[in-house]
Amino acid sequence: MDTTESAASSAAPATPPGQARRLTVLSGPSGVGKSTVVARLRESHPQVWLSVSVTTRRPRPGERDGVQYHFTDDAGFDRLVASGELLEWAEFAGNRYGTPRRPVEERLAAGVPTLLEIDLQGARQVRETMPESLLVFLAPPSWDELVRRLTGRGTEPPDVIERRLEAARVELAAEKEFDLTLVNHSVQGVCDELLALMADH
Fold first, then answer.
1. Is residue 32 a known part of a binding site?
2. Is 34 annotated to bind ligand?
3. Residue 26 main-chain phi, psi, to 5 deg
């Protein structure tokens, strides 16, 4: 597995018509900065399509349905699982998250650069269902920095934070399962490297 800490700027051009793209999956422990990296990447390169996950979690302040997540209840999520409409799904911190299958398959078939931001359980499922996908692990500069980011959010009670820290220990131990690792020293650096990887198709 390659570990990359520096990055070179690159574009992620569309694949020629009729040629499917390889799916890129970004994963890593909670608090490592996945959402921040993806937001920066989408601002500068809107041609990269980010799958919007379905979740049973309640919206956080400022989140909108269909933008950050598709919000649903447990019964709605059960229906999606039963009908095979999710590419992957996982439970985390008492809530469930899943990736709608059809939009991903349609974008890949059309040659659109496609990115998933999902957790370890979901990444493992994608590895099984789409083995040609590129799995990228986003790692923190250090464990202490990850703890600082998780405890500094101020949006969750202590018991949820402790569950996230326990999950983070498990997720960090799974780094070797991924194709390569990017260390989040710099949000822009990680964005540049991700774009380079998506362009190298």
1. yes
2. yes
3. -110, 125
Whether 93 is covered by a domain: the verdict is no
Question: Which range marks the domain in which residue 128 is found?
Answer: 2-51+110-199
Q: Is 29 annotated as a binding residue?
A: yes
Report whether 31 belongs to an annotated binding site. Answer: yes
pTM greater than 0.70 (yes/no): yes
- For residue 126, the domain's CATH number is 3.40.50.300
As for how many domains the chain has, the answer is 1
pLDDT in tens, 123-182: 999 999 899 999 999 999 999 988 888 887 667 788 888 888 888 899 999 999 999 999
DSSP state of 20: P
Domain-embedded: residue 81 = no
CA separation for the pair 198, 38 (Å, rounded): 13
Looking up tokens 């694949």 gives 15
| Contact criterion met (CB below 8 Å) for 195 and 38 | no
**Is residue 84 included in any domain, yes or no?**
no
Residue 89 resides in a domain? no
Q: Is 103 labeled as ligand-binding?
A: no
Q: What tens digit of pLDDT does each residue of 46-73 get?
A: 999 999 999 999 999 999 999 889 999 9
100 is in an annotated binding site: no
